[in-house]
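Figure 6 in text form: structure in, sequence out.
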């Protein structure tokens, strides 16, 4: 649905959906069979297909699916009176069996049942996205003459964006199932033994030290695969503000001689600390902790001559 309000305001609200079928996925078809006496040292002997010749064998098949549904709203004030503004909001959900689109397919965790727990939120799922951007021609020294050419003509442009966090899941970090090195052997998921969610409104220092309830996950028994699903947790969101101050000027009247453009740009102007994803590997000493963050505030200046 689209609606124009007055001469300059434009409003649009719509549903956007996409379905994907027969997408590529890879599963291990020569895993070591677990049984009495199974150890990490006799993996190769326990493989069902010609263990004297073949190790890991990946089977690429096309039976993964994806679903995307979203509400997308957009309010735009077209450029007039020296400025333009746009506010966009997207509320969406993306689900699939694997999010790799490199043509090789996503690897599944359980080679004996690649439908078990693989369907979940897409790796790139962002439930809420809000973006505000605008451009403003500053109304200073617009009367013409050399003062306007030298000191006038400033433009302010910027955008502010907010994204909710991306999903992740907890992995054991070793081959507990003892099916041998191969597809996703190190990505075996853990068992859920409790409530993994903690209060997201806790102080940031507490979030950094323990983002989720690590005690809610347990290592599966030997020869078993974890019962936790894919992408059941959501990481920290992202807030970013960029601002640019531009001036285009020509010391001469003839446009054919070209013009200069000065740019002063600030990235993450508010210097907001955007936390990275928490460590999801149970074998890591930093399990459950956040060890990374996005870039701090960055300033840069530039001068360009166009002719």
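Output sequence:
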């Amino acid at each position: 649905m689209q609606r124009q309000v007055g001469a300059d305001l434009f409003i649009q609200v719509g549903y956007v959906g996409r379905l994907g079928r027969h997408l590529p996925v890879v599963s291990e078809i020569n895993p070591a069979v677990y049984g009495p006496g199974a150890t990490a040292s006799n993996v190769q002997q326990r493989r069902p297909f010609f263990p004297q010749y073949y190790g890991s064998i990946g089977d690429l098949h096309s039976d993964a699916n994806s679903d995307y549904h979203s509400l997308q709203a957009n309010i735009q004030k077209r450029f007039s009176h020296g400025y333009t503004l746009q506010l966009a909001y997207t509320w969406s959900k993306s689900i699939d069996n694997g999010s790799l689109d490199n043509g090789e397919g996503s690897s599944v965790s359980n080679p004996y049942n690649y439908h078990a727990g693989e369907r979940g939120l897409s790796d790139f799922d962002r439930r809420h996205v809000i973006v505000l951007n605008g451009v403003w021609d500053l109304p200073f020294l617009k009367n013409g003459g050399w003062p306007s050419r030298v000191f006038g003509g400033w433009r302010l442009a910027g955008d502010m964006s907010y994204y909710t966090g991306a999903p992740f899941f907890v992995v054991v970090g070793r081959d507990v199932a003892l099916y041998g090195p191969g597809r996703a052997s190190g990505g075996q998921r853990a068992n859920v033994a409790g409530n993994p969610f903690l209060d997201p409104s806790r102080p940031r220092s507490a979030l950094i030290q323990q983002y989720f309830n690590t005690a809610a996950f347990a290592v599966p028994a030997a020869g078993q695969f974890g019962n936790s699903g894919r992408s059941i947790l959501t990481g920290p969101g992202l807030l970013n503000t960029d601002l640019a101050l531009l001036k285009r000027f020509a010391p001469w009247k003839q446009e054919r001689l070209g013009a200069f453009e000065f740019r002063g740009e600030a990235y993450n102007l508010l210097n907001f600390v955007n936390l990275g994803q928490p460590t999801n590997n149970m074998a890591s000493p930093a399990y459950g902790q956040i060890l990374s963050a996005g870039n701090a505030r960055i300033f840069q200046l530039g001068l360009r001559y166009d002719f």
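Caption detail: The mean pLDDT is 89.
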